[in-house]
Write a structure and sequence with these properties.
The complex is a heterodimer. Chain A is 64% helix and 9% strand. Chain A is built from 10 helices and 4 strands. Chain A has helices at 16-36, 44-47, 62-70, 104-116, 131-159, 162-185, 192-222, 228-260, 266-285, 287-297; strands spanning 49-56, 77-81, 89-94, 121-129. Chain A has a 4-stranded antiparallel beta sheet. In chain A, a hairpin with a 7-residue loop joins β2 and β3 (89-94). In chain B, the strands form 6 sheets. Chain B has a 4-stranded antiparallel beta sheet. In chain B, strands 3-4-6-5 form a 4-stranded antiparallel beta sheet. Chain B has a 4-stranded antiparallel beta sheet with strand order 12-9-15-16. In chain B, α5 (142-167) packs antiparallel against α6. Classes of the chains: A alpha+beta, B alpha+beta.
C-alpha cells in the first residue's frame, strides 16, 4: 500500500510566507492568552496547595459535597467532578497547605466522613505541596526545558551544522510555545506531568526535523548544483511519507491515551497531541525556511 | 556475511532468553530454587500504582542551632556560677548567637580563658564595655554551624528510619534530598495520619520540676518568676471532641531528657487503660534518683514536645530508673509513643513540604486503564503496519513486541519503578518505536523504485536510514535525560521507560529485523520483497 506517490513534488518552500504568517499568528495568540490570563495556570505541583480526591459508594450530588466543605471555613475551596459523569468521584482543591502534622486534608476527610458516613466514601488520593517545593519545581521545570533545548542545539550543531541546529531549536520553541498557548487557552493547569509532556515534545518533535535534515545533509553532497531552498524542498518531499506515517502512528497512540488512559494523564495526552501535531507541521513548513533565512543572514562559507 | 548472521541470531536469542528470565518473577510465583540462581526481582510499582505515601520533610536545622545555643547557655551559667564570676544576663540572640553581661570587667581574662578552654566552638563576635559592664556577643563558628546542621539532618534521618522499621512497613524508601530535606516513601500504607504522626513527631521527652511556690494564674497575669515558664497539658475528649488545656508553671531548667532513655514499653493498668513505662540507662537512673531525692513532695512534670502529659507528686526518691507516662492513650497511640521514644527524639523539628497519598483502588484503576490503552494502541499500530508494509510490517510488529518485553525486563533488572506516566511512556514508545522501521522501509521502497535488487535495496535502506535513526533517537534521549534529572518519582518513571524503549527500539527495529531479511535474502534467496 502507498499513501503518497513517490513522484510527489509539492512546493513547500514556496509557501514560506503563509507558513510563517500562520505560525507567528499562533504564537502571538498564545502570548496574548498567556498575558490576558497572567501567565500559565499552574497546577498543584507548582502553585502549592492541597487536593483531596474522594469517591462515594452511593450517589452524591456535587452541591452536597460543596456544602459540606464550605462549612470548614477554608478559603479558596473548589470542588470538581472527576472521571465520567455518575462516577461519584470528586476532587476538592484548596490553595492552603499546612506544614503541621495535622493537615487540612485530615479535616476535609473527617468532615466528609461525618456528613456522609464513614463507610460510604473512600479517600482515593491526597496531595499536599508546600509553596516552597512548588517554587523549586517551577524553577527546575523551566530550567530542564531550557537546558534540553540547549542540549539539542549543541548536538545538532555537532552532528550537522549550526544553521540546522538553530532552525531545529527555533522550531521546538515554536512547538512548545503553541502547546503552552493551547493549555492556557483551554485553562488547563500546568503541572509536573505537563512539563514531562513538553520535554517529550522537545525530544520527539526534533526527531522529525532531524530526519529531514539528515536527508538535506545527504542531498547537499549529491546535488551540489542545486540551491539550498531547492535541496530542502526535495528533501522534505522525499521524507514526506515517512513524516506523515510515523506521526500518524504516534497520533493514534496518543488518541488511545487521551480517551482510555484515565483522567490522571488526560491533560498530558492532550499536550502531546497538540505538540505532536504542531511538531509535524513545523517540521514540514517551518524548519526549512528557518534554515534558509539563517543561511541568508549568515551565509555558510563552505558547503559540506 | 553468513557468519555475522549466525552471531547476530545468537545475540537475539540471548537477549530474548535473558529478558524472559528477568520477567518471569514479575508474572508467576517462582519456586524457591529459582531464587539465588536466577534473577528474582519483580517489576517495582510506583506509589501511584500500588498506593502509599510520599513525603518530603524539611529539617528545621536552624532550630538545631538554637537548641545547641540553649544548652550552652545553661552550661555557661552553671560554669560561671561555680567559678563565682559575677554575670547578669545571658540569653540567646537569633538562632546561633548569645549575649553575656559580665558585671565586673576584672574577670575578663578568667572568662576568656574559660570560654576558650570549655567552649572552643564559640567565637567572640562583639565586645562592648559601658559603665563597668562588659557585654560579650558569642556565636557559633561557621564550620560548627555546618556540622550541627548536617548532624541534625543525618540524625533525623536515622531516627525516622528506626521509627519506620519498628512500625513495620515493607520496602520503605528513606533518603536525604539536598541539604536539609528527607524523602520518605511508604508503599501500601493505609493510615497515613498515624504514619505521619509517627514519623514527624519531634518526641523530645523532658522532665521538669513544677514550681508550686507561685500561683499559675499570677504567672499568667504577668508576674512570671524568672526561672519558670508556663506549659500546657492539652487533652482531647475522645467522645465529644472537645479539647481542654490546663496550664502548669514549671522550672525552665530541664531536669532530665529522653536522651538517657533505654527502653519504652506499653503496659495496661487495672482499668485496662494503656500507658507507657520507660526505663533509663545507668547514668539516667542516677540523675533521676538525684532529682527525685532533691525534690520530694514536689511535682515532676513529664513533658513531650512541650505538652505536659502528667505531673505526679514525688513521694519518695526513686531508684532503678523507671517512670511511666500516662495520658489516656488508646492502645495504638501508646504503642506508637513507645516506638517513637525508643527510636529517640529528632534533633530538630521537621516540616512537611510535600505529601502525596494514593489509595490502592486508585492505583488499580490506573493500571487497568494503562493496560487497556497499551493494548488498543498496540493493536492499531499492528494492523496499520501489517496493512501498509505487508510481511515486512509483520516483522516490524514482532520487533515491537520484543521491544515491550525488553522494556519490562529492563525495568525488573535495573529495579526501576513502573509508574502511571511510565505506562504512558511505554504506550508512547509503541508509537515511536515503529519510526525506525518506517524510516528503513520507506528507504527500501525508494531504493527498489530506483531499480535496485532486493538484496541491494535492503542493504542501502538500512545503511542510509541509520544516521537518521541514531540522531533522532539520541535527541529524544537527551530530552529524557533532562526529564529524569528534573523529575520526581512518577516523572522519573516516564523518563526511564521512554529511554529504555528508545534504546531498545534501535536494537529491535534495526538489528533484529535485519536478521530476518538477511536470512530470507541469503539463505532462502527470495527474489521479491513483501513491503
Amino acid at each position: 500500500m502507498e499513501l503518497f506517490k513517490p513522484t510527489m513534488n509539492i512546493d513547500f518552500i514556496g509557501k514560506i510566507k503563509w507558513a510563517l504568517l500562520f505560525s507567528i499568528t499562533l504564537m502571538v495568540l498564545s502570548g496574548v492568552s498567556l498575558l490576558v490570563k497572567g501567565g500559565p495556570r499552574y497546577g498543584l505541583d507548582f502553585e502549592g496547595g492541597t487536593l483531596v480526591q474522594v469517591k462515594f459508594s452511593r450517589e452524591v450530588d456535587i452541591g452536597a459535597v460543596r456544602d459540606a466543605v464550605s462549612g470548614l471555613d477554608i478559603e479558596d475551596v473548589s470542588v470538581q467532578g472527576f472521571g465520567e459523569k455518575g462516577a461519584n468521584e470528586f476532587i476538592i482543591g484548596m490553595k492552603k497547605t499546612s506544614e503541621e502534622l495535622e493537615g487540612i486534608s485530615d479535616k476535609v476527610k473527617e468532615t466528609l466522613q461525618s456528613q456522609f458516613g464513614v463507610d460510604s466514601l473512600e479517600i482515593r488520593r491526597v496531595e499536599m505541596v508546600g509553596p516552597k517545593v512548588g517554587q523549586d519545581l517551577r524553577k527546575k521545570g523551566t530550567l530542564a526545558i531550557l537546558f534540553s533545548l540547549i542540549g539539542m542545539l549543541i548536538y545538532i550543531w555537532w552532528r550537522f551544522e549550526l544553521r540546522f541546529g538553530v532552525g531545529g531549536v527555533l522550531c521546538l520553541f515554536h512547538d512548545v510555545t503553541i502547546t503552552v498557548g493551547f493549555l492556557s487557552f483551554f485553562n488547563k493547569p500546568v503541572d509536573l506531568l505537563i512539563i514531562a509532556a513538553l520535554l517529550t515534545i522537545v525530544g520527539y518533535s526534533i526527531n522529525d526535523t532531524i530526519v529531514v535534515m539528515d536527508r538535506v545533509r545527504e542531498n547537499l553532497k549529491k546535488m551540489s548544483h542545486k540551491s539550498l531552498p531547492e535541496i530542502i524542498n526535495v528533501s522534505i518531499n522525499q521524507t514526506f511519507s515517512r513524516t506523515i506515517l510515523t506521526n500518524m502512528t504516534v497520533l493514534v497512540v496518543l488518541i488511545c491515551l487521551y480517551f482510555l488512559g484515565g483522567e490522571v494523564i488526560h491533560d498530558f495526552a492532550f499536550s502531546l497531541l497538540i505538540g505532536g501535531f504542531f511538531g509535524t507541521y513545523s517540521t514540514i513548513y517551518i524548519a526549512g525556511p528557518l534554515v534558509i533565512y539563517w543561511d541568508k543572514l549568515f551565509p555558510a562559507k563552505r558547503r559540506r | 556475511m553468513d557468519k555475522s548472521l549466525k552471531w547476530r541470531f545468537l545475540l537475539l536469542v540471548v537477549v530474548v532468553a535473558v529478558s524472559i528470565l528477568y520477567l518471569i518473577p514479575s508474572f508467576v510465583r517462582v519456586p524457591s530454587w529459582w531464587e539465588g540462581t536466577f534473577p528474582s526481582e519483580k517489576i517495582a510499582l510506583g506509589l501511584d500504582l500500588q498506593g502509599g505515601m510520599h513525603l518530603i520533610l524539611e529539617v528545621e536545622t536552624e532550630k538545631a542551632l538554637a537548641n545547641s545555643i540553649d544548652r550552652m547557655i545553661s552550661d555557661i551559667s552553671d560554669l560561671l556560677f561555680n567559678e563565682r564570676i559575677p554575670f547578669d544576663k545571658i540569653e540567646r540572640v537569633e538562632n546561633d548567637k548569645l549575649t553575656l553581661e559580665l558585671l565586673n570587667t576584672g574577670f575578663q581574662d578568667k572568662l576568656n580563658k574559660l570560654l576558650q578552654d570549655r567552649f572552643p566552638n564559640l567565637e567572640k563576635l562583639r565586645y562592648d564595655e559601658k559603665e563597668g559592664i562588659a557585654v560579650y556577643t558569642l556565636g557559633l563558628r561557621a564550620s560548627d554551624k555546618e556540622y550541627l546542621k548536617q548532624f541534625a539532618v543525618d540524625q533525623g534521618l536515622e531516627t525516622i528510619r528506626n521509627r519506620i522499621d519498628e512500625f513495620g512497613v515493607s520496602e520503605p524508601t528513606i533518603q536525604k534530598q539536598g541539604a536539609d530535606r528527607i524523602l520518605i516513601q511508604l508503599p501500601g500504607i493505609k493510615d497515613d495520619k498515624r504514619a505521619l504522626s509517627l514519623i514527624g513527631k519531634t518526641a523530645l521527652l523532658e522532665f521538669k520540676i513544677v514550681n508550686d511556690e507561685y500561683d499559675v494564674k499570677r504567672a499568667l497575669a504577668g508576674e512570671m518568676p524568672p526561672d519558670s515558664e508556663v506549659l500546657y497539658s492539652k487533652r482531647e475528649n475522645r467522645t465529644t471532641g472537645e479539647s481542654t488545656s490546663e496550664p502548669y508553671l514549671v522550672k525552665k531548667t530541664t531536669a532530665l531528657t529522653g536522651e538517657h532513655l533505654q527502653t519504652a514499653r506499653v503496659n495496661f493498668d487495672q482499668f485496662n487503660a494503656a500507658y507507657v513505662t520507660i526505663s533509663f540507662d545507668t547514668l539516667g537512673s542516677k540523675i533521676f534518683e538525684r532529682i527525685t531525692r532533691e525534690n520530694v513532695k514536689k511535682r515532676l512534670a513529664i513533658i513531650l514536645d512541650n505538652n505536659v502529659y502528667s505531673a505526679p507528686v514525688i513521694r519518695e526518691p526513686i531508684a532503678g530508673g523507671r517512670a511511666s507516662i500516662e495520658g489516656r492513650f488508646t492502645t495504638e497511640e501508646a504503642r506508637d509513643l513507645a516506638i517513637v521514644l525508643r527510636a529517640g527524639s529528632l534533633p530538630a523539628p521537621v516540616k512537611i513540604l510535600e505529601k502525596r497519598v494514593v489509595g490502592p483502588s486508585m492505583g488499580q484503576d490506573s493500571i487497568r486503564q494503562g493496560i487497556i490503552s497499551c493494548l488498543i494502541a498496540g493493536g492499531t499500530v499492528f494492523v496499520f503496519m501489517g496493512g501498509y508494509y505487508l510481511l515486512s510490517g509483520l516483522i516490524a510488529n514482532a520487533a515491537l513486541c520484543l521491544n515491550i518485553v525488553i522494556i519490562l525486563a529492563a525495568l525488573a533488572a535495573f529495579r526501576a519503578t513502573l509508574t502511571l506516566p511510565g505506562i504512558a511512556g511505554i504506550v508512547l514508545t509503541i508509537g515511536m518505536a515503529v519510526d525506525a522501521n518506517v524510516l528503513i522501509f520507506e528507504r527500501i521502497r525508494e531504493e527498489l523504485r530506483a531499480g535496485k535488487t532486493p538484496r541491494a535495496a535492503v542493504d542501502a535502506g538500512y545503511d542510509r536510514a541509520m544516521s537518521a535513526i541514531i540522531d533522532s533517537n539520541v535527541t529524544t534521549v537527551i530530552a529524557a535525560l533532562f526529564l529524569f534529572q528534573f523529575g520526581t518519582g512518577p516523572i522519573k518513571g516516564f523518563a526511564v521507560t521512554l529511554t529504555i524503549g528508545l534504546t531498545a527500539s534501535v536494537f529491535t527495529a534495526v538489528v533484529c529485523t535485519r536478521i530476518v531479511y538477511d536470512y530470507f535474502l541469503s539463505k532462502r534467496r527470495i527474489k521479491k520483497l513483501s513491503i
